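WARN retry 2 of 3 for item q-0093 after timeout on previous attempt; input resubmitted unchanged.
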Amino acid sequence: MATALGTAAFAEALRRLLGAETGADERMHLALLAGALAWLLVTLSGRRGFGLFASAGLIGALWLASTLKRQYLHQPLLGPDLRYFLSSSTADVIAHYPGMWPKVLGAVVGGFVVAAWLWWIERPAGWRGRRLAHAAWSLLAAFLVAAAWPGASLGAKVGTGTWAFIEHATANPATTFLDSISRMRVSLPPHSATAASRFDWGEASAAQAEHRPDIVVVLEESTLDPRQWAACAAPQCSLPLFDGDASTRARGDLLVHTWGGATWTSEFAFLAALPHPLFGPAGIYAPYNLAPRVRYSLPRQLKALGYRSIAFYPMEGGFVRAAEAYADYGFDEFHDAAELGLGWESSDGDLVARFQERYPQLAGDPGQPLFIMLLTMRQHGPHDLPLDALPAPFDRPLLPGEDERTNRNVGHYLHRLHESAAALERLRAFLFASGRPTLLAHFGDHRPSFDGLERGLASSARVREPALARQLTYYRIDSTPAGERETVPDRLDLAFLAGLIIDIAGLPKDAFFEANTRLRERCNGRFMDCPQPEALESWMAHAFGRLDALGP
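OK item q-0093 returned
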């Protein structure tokens, strides 16, 4: 009975794993690796049924984790995820997705219960004396199969780019997971000393800062102008937040480098003024392997001008190494959710209230300017909740041409967005009434995923580049006292936003941000898709060769 149950579980796990793969070579090698794993566990335990079931559990865990991550975030499961994201903070995130946590909890608890029962009922095999020899042979078999892993051919298929790697992963989840174990290393963009001299990238400014306004930046979780969706034509889809007013210095479409999650990559791109895909797939783990190597950043530039940098973070500081990463970026203070008394259901208004309570102390020295960054959380998923829990007019479908599930997601999204916009307006009124010159910038870090449904929402005519629609959010910069509007490109890369803020604030720049500004002007706000590839090549040689923008 135990052997039959273990065999059935192993066969089903293998069927699901191989069914997600598209290549015959990949399927063959995965089957061989699974067989070697099963042989090893059967040998070490001395129990056929238990060993087969345990190997099925490991294979099933890989399949389930990969499936859930692709379903909710449309991102692949990668080897370093096991190192970086196995934490209580990640478990807390999973617990708030009603469609996810029962699957995870059921699989884990059920698997352990059945495994313990099989161990108890199954008598060890009589070949105990030969167990070490069997284990040695199974380890050798696993090593030989792993050595024959088609990594070179996979590398040829997916190249080295981050997006190519991720797109391949949607069709080959297990293959990508195994291949990522050896591929997730930071790599600098290719650059040569001669290329740096093809363009003039300027030098550090020697000018003194005549005016040093406070700079407050709000990273708006999962936020975009809902009018970018063709189906979102209801009045609730229009918010003044995205239109600007007399205090607005610049606004427009923002191109970001993630979708549906991984906010930490947007934090890196904004603060370090570098798109994380520049460094290969390993750039996804920016707080761990890029932040400690950053030589230039917005907080460091402002600190050189006498600014004090403070971050208000809506999660615990241990989440994705946030507290340490923000110290690496150059922040002087970091206040997390635990200190602020914020939880998962806290509104953006709660975050603004906590900031207002601390503001008198922060602004106690009239001679020291402040750089403050607040990250919101309320717009994070899940959004797939019953509409009747919302107040009118959000308690009914607002997208007549879309299905019920899409309407649930968009309805909850719009309700939270209106709350976030109101909180942001309260923040602006509070700051602008303080008597201190202030520049307020806010931007969407990525689009919501709606558990993958957002990809199916057609774009409206407002989206001038439909091919990039999934990467477009928004940005807006206001100031008091008001000033002239900045001439900005129709679409700005997130890696240029910090430099634009420095320019609008009228502050001098170091050599890195001077080069960042010149690249923005030469590439018309584009970065990775700069219309002058030779300019981007020259900038990379200057940034990584001359300035050593990312240290060892």
